[in-house]
Write a structure and sequence with these properties.
It is a single chain. It is built from 13 helices and 13 strands. It has helices at 8-19, 38-41, 50-65, 77-82, 93-117, 131-134, 136-151, 174-184, 238-250, 265-270, 289-295, 309-316, 360-365; strands at 31-36, 69-74, 122-128, 154-160, 189-194, 214-215, 254-259, 278-280, 303-307, 328-332, 340-345, 350-355, 381-383. By secondary structure, it is α/β, with parallel strands linked by helices. Helix 8 runs parallel beside helix 9. It is globular and about 65 Å long. The strands form two sheets. Strands 3-4-2-1-5-7-8-6 form an eight-stranded mixed β-sheet, sandwiched between helices. The chain has a five-stranded mixed β-sheet with strand order 10-9-11-12-13.
Length: 400
């Protein structure tokens, strides 16, 4: 199946040498997420680059042997499937993507399982859609599954379920998925591997462009330096990586954007070597549990509610307060009980979000009424003003 002519016994010897440099792994690397982009593990024709996958597997094997818990988020299924079948001209682009994903995911996991198996590492596959994170029960089911895998030394390999993820069910790309997984699993570090060294002050191809090595909460905005171009086989680009990295770092997780085409890049980062990357420094904020889930639920919101000045003042105060129906003046959109909804004030400013205890029809019936049961209980309420360290990228949200 593979054309790689490598003696694995020799690799083990080389890894043992590298291991000596990683004997004292820093606490911030005890549990990490590694995201691999399509352009890292596929060749120009879209076929899987088995040699590059092996290099990444080697790095992870080093960490695994040091007791580091690794979660691998991988793209590449759609790209891998493209080369395997010639589809009918009648097949629309959505159906084509689903077919490529279904075929390519098998090829992708076969590659990973074969290579990880050579190092005695058992790998397991998880396929996710937005619904895996939208519903609190599904969210906890996934978290419990990954936790059990890690406890049993099974390496989780996660990818978006592109065979069924279409339109509103799709993540922005696997950068978003890697951020959600990192947050869900309380990881200390997220490493995003692209086909460039990080974020530059200009185009990476320009000779005068300089790599931005470090970004923190006080750094200037990098948006003006970043091209909006998308990667060849992926849906995302550096702009998406920047926003995801900034948001995750604000949550208290270190994020590195680095070049996955460089050999040993993962081990070099963790070993503290002077290699090129852009690092987003972890902030002090460290939300847990339900609040963390809500922090990442903005794109899952099904509707919004408008609140009056009294309710706004109560929610912004220091006292823990639920959102009551008496403070709601408007309902936008359709949602069911248990769905995530946005909270906006009467000027259209986005204040936060929470889990609705009423569906939209019942909420409309009870606008402004004094009911015992709150519309959103405090435990399932997230107000951004109370979490200023958390970066939010929808400040311009206005109600329709």
């Amino acid at each position: 199946m593979f054309t790689i002519s490598i003696n694995f016994a020799t690799i083990y010897i080389l890894l043992s040498i590298i291991d000596n440099k990683l004997k004292n792994v820093k606490p911030e690397f005890n549990r990490i997420t590694i995201k691999v982009g399509s352009n890292v593990i596929t060749q120009k024709d879209g076929s899987l680059n088995d040699g590059r996958i092996l290099r990444i597997v080697e790095d992870i094997a080093v960490l695994y042997r040091q007791g580091v818990e690794v979660l691998l988020i991988t793209s590449g299924a759609v790209a891998a499937g493209r080369e395997s079948i010639m589809l009918s001209r009648k097949t629309n682009i959505v159906a084509a993507r689903q077919i490529w994903a279904a075929i390519g995911q098998v090829k992708l996991m076969s590659s990973y399982q074969f290579l990880f198996g050579k190092y005695g590492i058992q790998a397991g596959q998880l396929l996710a859609t937005k619904d895996s994170f939208r519903d609190r029960r599904n969210y906890l089911n996934m978290k419990n599954c990954i936790s059990a895998m890690l406890e049993n030394r099974v390496l989780p390999i996660v990818n978006e379920n592109d065979a069924i993820s279409i339109n509103e069910l799709m993540f922005t790309d696997n950068d978003e998925l890697s951020g959600l997984i990192s947050s869900m699993m309380d990881c200390q570090t997220l490493i995003i591997l692209s086909n460039v060294d990080g974020i530059y002050r200009g185009s990476p191809e320009d000779e005068g462009s300089k790599l931005i090595r470090s970004v923190d909460s006080g750094s200037e905005s990098m948006e003006k330096f970043i091209s909006s171009d998308k990667s060849g086989f992926g849906r995302g680009g550096m702009m998406t990586k920047y926003f995801i990295a900034k948001k995750i770092a604000a949550e208290g997780i270190d994020v590195f954007i680095a070049n996955g085409l460089r050999d040993s890049i993962i081990a070099d980062i963790i070993g503290g070597k002077d290699v090129p990357y852009t690092r987003f420094m972890a902030g002090e904020q460290k939300e847990t549990g339900v609040k963390r889930w809500l922090y990442h639920s903005d794109t899952f919101a099904k509707g919004s509610v408008v609140i009056n000045s009294g309710a706004k003042e109560a929610l912004m105060g220091e006292k823990a307060t639920s959102l009551l129906m008496i403070g709601i003046t408007g309902i936008n959109g359709f949602f069911r009980k248990g769905d995530i909804v946005r909270i906006i004030d009467e000027d259209g400013n986005y204040l936060g979000l929470g889990q609705a205890q009423y569906d939209s029809d019942k909420a409309v019936e009870n606008i402004g009424m004094k009911l015992r049961k709150p519309f959103i209980h405090y435990d399932y309420l997230f107000i951004y003003e109370k979490n200023k360290g958390m970066i939010h990228h929808n400040e311009d949200f206005k109600s329709n």
